[in-house]
Q: What sequence folds into this?
RNA sequence: GGUGCCGUAGCCAAGUGGACUAAGGCGGGGGCCUGCAAAGCCCCUAUUCGUGGGUUCGAAUCCCACCGGCGCCUCCA
């Protein structure tokens, strides 16, 4: 079945068809590296990761670009404040971004361009826009003349945007715009408060690029023009993406991105996350509280990307539990399969049905909630089927379900993360645990249950959870003591 | 002022005109298993979809009004 995606440009769900057969080009707006990204930022990045993974699951080659914004008011101010260059300021935040990125199991994009490496090309684009009559210079700065771009504001549904009187409080009063709605392409003029951390030479004198320029330039530099998918958070629709379109299309005279995808924000305890109000969590904050990356991923990928997610700690707890159920299910299948085991034809049937419902859900504008539903329905029904068997199940039947699980996880990516989280157990600890279990087995043999329970208690103190199963005791480390 | 979204069980959340006698997760209740547990599994858990009208043979789904929550309108993912 073909994938259908909502396109902000047309305001409807439409069939997605890449420009080039079997190959999808996508540009995903990345973080501004002036600080550590929070989980709200990662909600968006994760939604894009799901899209990337699903496209690959369907057999497409994906070429993804994720920019790292290192030239912007916040990076400049932070660099000036600390007396360092932009590169010095952003290096640790870029490292932190990739650390969290990998911890949440996001697949790496093909390119991670930084604005500071593309200033020359940005200047080229501004020159093209000036030559084409889309931009004008005033006092060493260059502005985009939106009256020359008839389609301006279409993405945001603002074809006839009116600017409210007195609402343009940007601190840019010194700029000589002809029209208040025109936006800056090149910021010239004196800005002593910015020092020399972000000053480049240009045909209009020293200055720095406007923020929107980097994405127009870096996207087309790597993906050509037009390319297939451009995505980001909903807050970027206007003005950022609106201006990107005006720049790229004005400069090249052809369409920029064909399909626009915007991810709704994640709230924290019912309120918008905000750096300035210190109302946010980073991935690191959550890990310090003992959360598992796989559970964070499960929660951030639980809802539809065009629906707000409200992040709460109890919600993360729910996500952890549901993930444990999944892991338990997989363990049950792995432990209970044997080449000559009991035939359970129902398992492959259930697996096949679940997988097709799962795919149909994702085909429908990446309906993640429905896709999880298909997976958990399989869990319940397969568990019920396993209950009916009174011994090991034929391996080929169990494998049909395990394969379906693994296939879905190529997109969900939670099991693969969970598998990386298993705690290392030292040999000493392992020997001690095994000794305790042997003693306990002996006590139980002699029906000395109070001693057996005392040993179980001691193990629990050490963070070891013991479960008795028909095949003997099973233990796992629930926490490092 | 402009513009857009949302309101479904205790909580989270799909479904957006007829197969809905409304997915799925968490929680809760009951049962199975167990020396007892734990874990796990199974079953049950919304006569109803913010409120009031309307359209229709038929509405959670469409229209109107109202109530409540959220977003965007120049540099926040």
A:
């Amino acid at each position: 079945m073909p994938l259908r995606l909502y396109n902000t440009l047309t305001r409807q769900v439409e069939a997605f068809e890449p420009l080039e057969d079997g190959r999808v080009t996508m540009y995903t707006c990345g973080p501004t590296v002036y600080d550590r990204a929070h989980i709200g930022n990662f909600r968006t990045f994760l939604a894009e990761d799901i899209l990337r993974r699903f496209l690959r699951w369907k057999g497409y080659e994906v070429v993804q670009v994720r920019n790292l914004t290192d030239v912007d008011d916040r990076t400049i101010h932070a660099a000036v404040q600390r007396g360092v260059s932009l590169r010095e300021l952003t290096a640790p935040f870029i490292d932190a971004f990739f650390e969290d990125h990998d911890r949440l199991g996001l697949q790496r994009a093909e390119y991670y361009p930084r604005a500071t490496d593309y200033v020359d090309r940005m200047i080229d684009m501004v020159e093209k826009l000036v030559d084409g009559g889309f931009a004008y210079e005033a006092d060493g700065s260059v502005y985009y003349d939106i009256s020359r771009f008839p389609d301006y504001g279409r993405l945001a549904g603002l074809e006839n945007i009116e600017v409210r009187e007195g609402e343009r409080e940007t601190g840019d009063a010194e700029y000589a715009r002809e029209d208040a709605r025109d936006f800056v392409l090149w910021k010239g003029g004196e800005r002593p408060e910015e020092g020399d951390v972000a000053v480049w030479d240009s045909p209009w004198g020293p200055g720095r690029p406007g923020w929107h320029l980097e994405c127009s330039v870096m996207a087309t530099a790597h993906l050509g023009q037009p390319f297939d998918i451009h995505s980001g958070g909903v807050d970027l629709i206007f003005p950022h993406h609106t201006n990107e379109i005006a720049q790229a299309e004005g400069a090249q005279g052809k369409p920029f991105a064909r399909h626009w995808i915007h991810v709704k924000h994640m709230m924290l305890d019912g309120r918008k996350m905000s750096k300035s109000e210190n109302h946010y969590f980073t991935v690191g904050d959550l890990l310090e509280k003992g959360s598992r990356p796989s559970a964070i991923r499960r929660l951030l990928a639980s809802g539809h990307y065009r629906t707000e997610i409200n992040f709460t700690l109890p919600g993360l707890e729910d996500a952890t539990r549901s993930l444990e159920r999944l892991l338990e299910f997989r363990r049950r299948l792995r432990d209970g399969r044997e080449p000559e085991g009991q035939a359970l034809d129902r398992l492959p049937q259930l697996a096949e049905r679940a997988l097709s419902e799962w795919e149909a859900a994702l085909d429908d504008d990446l309906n993640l909630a429905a896709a999880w539903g298909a997976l958990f329905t399989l869990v319940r029904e397969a568990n019920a089927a396993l209950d009916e068997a009174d011994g090991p199940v034929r391996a080929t039947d169990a494998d049909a379900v395990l394969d379906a699980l693994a296939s879905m996880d190529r997109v969900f990516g939670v099991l693969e993360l969970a598998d990386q989280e298993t705690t290392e157990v030292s040999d000493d600890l392992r020997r001690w645990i095994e000794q305790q279990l042997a003693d306990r087995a002996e006590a139980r043999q002699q029906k000395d249950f109070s001693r057996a329970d005392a040993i179980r208690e001691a193990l629990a103190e050490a963070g070891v959870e013991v479960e008795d199963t028909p095949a003997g005791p099973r233990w796992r480390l629930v926490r490092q003591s």
